[in-house]
Amino acid sequence: MASELLPLAVAVLKLGDDMPTESLRTPLPLPTSPTAWGRSDGSLPARGEGRGGEHATYRHLLAWLAALCLLCAAALPAHAAAIRDLTSVQGVRVNQLVGYGLVVGLGGTGDQATQVPYTTQSLLSMFQRLGINLPPGVASNLQPKDVAAVMITANLPPFSQPGQQINVTVSAVGNASSLAGGTLLMTPLKGADGQTYAVAQGSVVVSGFGAASGGNSTQVNFLTAGMIANGATVERAVANNFDKAGPITLALNSPSFGTASRVADSINQRFGAGTATALNAGVIQVNAPLTAGDRTAFLGQVEALDVSPESPPAKVVIDARSGTVVLGQNVTLGACAVAHGNLSVTINTQYEVSQPNPLGAGQTAVVPKTDVKAKADKANLLMFKPGVTLEAVVRALNAVGAAPNDLIAILQAMKAAGALHAQLEVI
């Protein structure tokens, strides 16, 4: 960036080479009236007429200001990002919670007891905990239609304290047709260690609707999954090592040796040499203060620093299921020629009746008649020169009518031939 703007700044400064040094030290007189710098009739003077020295001084001053702006722009980092957007603090993480519960109050859209027996078992178990004991005959014939078994998932943010509320997602696990209008009963949410960290309860909000009548139905979005905003209350905090004395470890979201080195250099320039060390492409070790308050303030200042990350590697991501192709930055090709044609095979089967002779002993039978046709389209040969971008290749292939699946096959063949200068990732 600086190498491109510096010659432009020098060229702008050459406009004022003939300017005397004293002209910059002499203050410019301000006009005392609207016509002070013009003719008596108010019109501007002709070129070279009147105060030519002041106009020349203004031109030289503007040239210096333009050059100064260009040099300042060259000193600014390009595509700078805050360290908080590039890294995460090791040990400061989100924890997943999960629980099993019941949603009640469904208008006949719940689980069918005969096909989902665990819903009835869960309901009877809840009745027993609440002190309701049903006779054996009634319990065995219980078939509620307004109850659905659900799984509840939530993310517990770092530093969450008891009493805080978090969002939860409710998803049906049986054959309930809709959770709209239902209420989730109190459900404990547990972590990977089996401990309960939150308790969820509330009305389920579904972002869809459906209707059915006379065998016809319509549905918008999904009705068997919903959300409860602030539906869980944190009951236990997760222990972390942030308050303990010692260095803080920053982990890069996208490992890169260049970005790790730049992050360490930026921290050292702000807080002094030796404060941060890039251990590898994904880890930066930072020496932090000992007390919790100082560590918090220090890390806040570190995360606010701006760093220009290294350009990502050239990559092409292909989703073979949907036919989506995403091209990364700086993807180029070597010299290659591509010829791709379509081979279509059509199989058509017709059934005919074979009728025997009237006096014969045969029987009437249905005989299939199969017709197989194969058609190969003419292959289009495309030549690509070295250094051409993949974007130009995709445009050329789209121009000849290549389908997304054809494009995926061509890219894989280019990579196998060594002509695609990028990482090819198939998901």
Detailed description of the structure:
The protein is of the alpha+beta class. It has helices at residues 2-13, 22-25, 52-75, 83-86, 117-129, 136-140, 257-271, 292-303, 390-399, 404-417, and strands at 81-82, 87-89, 95-104, 147-156, 165-172, 183-190, 196-203, 209-213, 216-220, 225-234, 248-252, 276-278, 283-286, 306-307, 315-319, 324-327, 332-333, 336-340, 343-354, 365-376, 380-384, 420-421, 423-426. The protein is 26% helix and 31% strand. The strands form eight sheets. A six-stranded antiparallel barrel has the order 3-4-5-10-7-6. Residues 1-13, 15-45, 47-51 and 73-78 have low confidence and may be disordered.
Structural class: alpha+beta
% residues in beta strands: 25-35%
How many DSSP E strands?
23
Q: In one word, what is the shape?
A: flat
Please describe the biggest sheet, giving its number of strands, its sense, and whether it closes into a barrel. 6 strands, antiparallel, barrel
Low-confidence runs of at least 5 consecutive residues: 1-13, 15-45, 47-51, 73-78
How many domains, as an integer? 4
**What's the gyration radius in Å?**
37 Å
In round numbers, the mean pLDDT is 78
Number of helices: 10
Subunit structure: The basal body constitutes a major portion of the flagellar organelle and consists of four rings (L,P,S, and M) mounted on a central rod.
Transmembrane segments: 61-80
Pfam families: FlgI
Protein name: Flagellar P-ring protein
Describe, in short, the structure shown.
It contains 10 helices and 23 strands. The chain has 427 residues and is of the alpha+beta class.
